[in-house]
Each structure stands twice: as C-alpha cells, then as structure tokens.
Amino acid sequence: MANQDGTLYGVPPRGQVRKGQYIEIQNPDELRTKMALYYALFFDSRTKHSPKVSVPYLDAWGLGLITTVSLPIVINGQLKGVVGLDLTMIDLLEDVLYLQKGELSYAFIIDDRGRAVLHPLLPSPLDVFEDPILINITDIERGADFEQVYTSMTKGSAGTKDLTAVRTFSKGEWSLEGRVTKTFSATYYWKPIEVIGYSLCLVLTKDFKQIDLASLVSSGDDFLYHRLDLIERNSDLCRYYNTSSLRSGRSTVKFAAEAFTDPSRYLDTEETAGRVRHYTKFMNDRIGFVPNPGFKSDIRNNVIATRQAEKYWPSFHRLDSGIQHWIPWRYIGTYNGVFRRIPGGMNHKLYSPSMRPW
Questions:
Q1: Which pLDDT belongs to residue 190?
Q2: Out of 77, 126, 176, 196, which residue is the most buried by the measure of CB atoms under 10 Å away?
Q3: How many alpha carbons fall within 13 Å on the CB side of residue 59?
Q4: Which SS3 state, helix, strand or coil, does residue 354 take?
C-alpha cells in the first residue's frame, strides 16, 4: 500500500505515483507520536512560511470569541512542530470596535478571502455566544462602486476612494421598533493589517467634524458612580426591579468600555470599592492632583457637561409635581461612552450608550 503497487492484485499502475511510507506500530502507546510524523511528509522546507490566522471561533473555556495565530517550527529544513497563540477578538480588534468618529462614520475588517470579520451590521465580539458564520463583505457593503475597494483589499493593497455609503440603525429593539437607513457621501480608506492577513477599511463621512469641549472645572462633590452596591449604603438607597436605585433626584454615571484608553482591561478587571473611590476622586478633583485611573482625555469634561442636564430635569419626587406616584426616567449619553441617568441606578458592565438602544 505504501508503494501504491497493485500488480499483486491485478491492478495496473496509473502514471507516476508518489510512494508513501510504511511504519509498523507494535506499542499502542506510541500511536500519537508516530502519527505526528504524518504532517512532515507534506512539509516543503523551501516554502517561506508566514503566520496563519484561523477563522474566529468560540473558546471552550469562556474567553469568548477567539482566533488562533500559528506558525511552523522548522529546524535544518525539517518540521519540528507548530507554535500557536490564542487571541481574543476583543483584544485584537478593540481599537476598531470602539472607534468613535460621529454617528455615521464606521470601520470594518475583512480577511484575505473577503469575509467580514468585523462590521457594524454584524454582532459585536462581545455579543457572540456560538461559533460565527462568516459572510462575504459584498453581502453587506452593496454600493455600486464598492467592487474596486473589495478587489484592492483582498489583494492586500491600500487606497482611498469617495463613495456613497449606507448605514442602517435600529430605532430601538430591532424586532419591535424597526430600523432606519441613512445614505451619505463618504471616503473609504483601506490598508492591510500586516502579518495576520486582515484588511481594515475606515469609512468617514465627508462632513464629519470633531468638536472638543473646553476644559471644564468640577464642582467638587457631585459625581456619583452607578455601582451603588460598592458605595457605603445610606437611607437614600432602595430596591427597584431587583437592582439598587436612588430615591432622591440625584443622577449616577456609567462608563462604557470605549471611555477608557484600554477597553479590554476595563472589561476584564473586576470593579472594587477602591476603584470606585478612585473614579470619584478623579472626577471631583478641582486642581488636577488625582492621577487619571485610565480614562480618555475628554471623558472628564463630558461628565461635567452632562451634569448640567439636571438643571432641565424636574425632580420626580416633588409632591406638587402631579407625578409623585410615578418614576419618570431620564437619560443622557455621549458617543465616547459617558451615560448619565436619573434617578440614579446600576447598569450592566457591558452597556454602552453608543452601541445599544436606550
């Protein structure tokens, strides 16, 4: 069988045959070691090997969506093994996942086969709970002139092109409140991501303008983080829909992952009472003495600015308001991840005002 010689059984040879190798295994304990040599038979030492990136899959140990980057180990022209590294898709793509360039601008990533790895119309890596089904980017980006961008990206090239882009937004819950579609003029910028074989495309609306708030000064004592369970309890706390809430008209602030310079670290680190105290001291600091616990540079200004909304939110608990038997909820959120609500209460750690309906 190893020599592919069937003349003994009346089967004539058919052209040139690559002979195999016969190995007799007498000890079953050696089966795995011997079988490992099977892959060496197909190894070509003359080939220049580059890292291979697997299709994203769900980690069996709870790390979420991950991918494996692997590379063969070659010594003196012989295959000796394979080295692999598992990366969570959140760590790999966080700079793109939390991109904030206005309402319409967005980014997407494809692999060398044109399959969409990340796109606003696809589930976020944070929300995937089973092995994903990858689809071609042309099934999502359906612009008439997108074919040129697609061809260039799959070839590993870089470029830029003005196109008409389309974005679809949810009006709330997809299944209940429908969606709205917006068409706009945009510039597509794309460039290959070296080593892993992906390609990144940034779609920026032409009229995008970034406005930075002037430096604001905290009043010194008005910041309250939403983790009421980590703050010293007082008579102002109550239970509302199985969560801690405030009976007074005071608001609380929740930070989304994109509010931090290292979103993955925020998501992976358990919040403690000490960390909450650090947040509070930094946000209430008036003289710049407290070190930044990891927020982006504009977050503190957004916290101070959104505090002003409370001037226009009438207190829900006033006896003469006519709604003293009801609890109206009011919210304000920013694209960089600041979310303020009144009455104050707790939110899920993964909640983001820019990525979830509210």
A1: 95
A2: 196
A3: 16
A4: coil
The predicted pLDDT at position 21 comes to 74
DSSP letter string, 292-344: P-SB-TTHHHHHHHHHGGGGGS--TT-TTSS-TTS---EEEE-TTSEEEEES-
Question: How far apart are the C-alpha atoms of 223 and 220, rounded to whole Å?
Answer: 8
CB distance 226 to 344 below 8 Å: yes
CB neighbour class for 137 (10 Å; exposed up to 12, middle 13-18, buried from 19): buried
Q: What is the mean pLDDT of each run of 10 residues along the chain (358 residues)?
A: 73 73 81 72 68 87 87 81 88 81 85 90 82 89 87 93 84 70 90 88 82 73 86 67 70 92 88 93 90 92 87 59 65 90 86 74
Give the E-state strand segments of the chain in sequence order: 52-53, 57-58, 65-75, 78-88, 106-110, 116-118, 159-170, 179-193, 198-205, 237-240, 243-246, 252-255, 330-333, 338-342
What is each CA distance from 163 to 66, 144, 166, in whole angstroms?
A: 33, 9, 10
Mapped to the 3 state alphabet, what secondary structure does 56-95 carry? CEECCCCCCEEEEEEEEEEECCEEEEEEEEEEEHHHHHHH
Our CA angle for 340, 343, 346, nearest 5°, is 65
Using CB atoms within 10 Å of the CB of residue 99, give its burial: 0 to 12 exposed, 13 to 18 middle, 19+ buried: middle
Half-sphere exposure of 45 (CA within 13 A, CB side): 10
How confident is the model at residue 123, as a pLDDT?
84
**What does the pLDDT read at residue 245?**
72
The answer to whether 45 touches 78, Cβ cutoff 8 Å, is yes
Buried-state track 273-297, b at ≥16 Cβ within 10 A, e below 16? eebbebbbebbbbeeeeeeeebbbe
For residue 275, what is the enclosing H or E element?
helix 273-284
Give the length of the chain: 358
Residues facing residue 240 across a β-bridge: 243
Can you give the pLDDT at residue 344?
84
30-34 long-range Cβ contacts below 8 angstroms, 24+ apart: none
Distances (CA, A) of 191 to 115, 131, 199, 238: 16, 27, 6, 52
